[in-house]
Amino acid sequence: MEPDVKEGDQVLVSTLSFHNLRGPKKMRDSFEFSRKHPVFPVSLVKPYFQTEEDKFPSRKKNPTPPDIVEVEDSPRPVSKFIRARKIRLNGKDQRQYLVRFKNQAADKDKWLEEDAIPDGSLHLRRFRASMRTEQSDQL
């Protein structure tokens, strides 16, 4: 039984006879120099019908989940300080600290100024003390 398909109709094509559908492929410009005829067997083609809500009123639509938005302004608890650096912003030297947050991977580490770190003074005292002990151990 052949499907009633005309030129320009949308169809579904069976992929059983396609052996390698993985990866990006470069398409040829045209078939004019090819020895293959650019057609599909009718047995692999099935007409495509777009579903409409009025045809299937009892079918429930899946609600799209809301986009996950990561709020950057919320203060996250600091796990530890990793490094310190001085940078020049607007003609002034500023010290920044590489901070790792609790329950976050190393790729989420951020350079922050002291005033942008929640409980910064407490953590900075510990960090500076650990830096002093590391320097005295190296001597």
TrEMBL record:
<protein>
    <recommendedName>
        <fullName>Chromo domain-containing protein</fullName>
    </recommendedName>
</protein>
<feature type="region of interest" description="Disordered">
    <location>
        <begin position="53"/>
        <end position="74"/>
    </location>
</feature>
<dbReference type="InterPro" id="IPR016197">
    <property type="entry name" value="Chromo-like_dom_sf"/>
</dbReference>
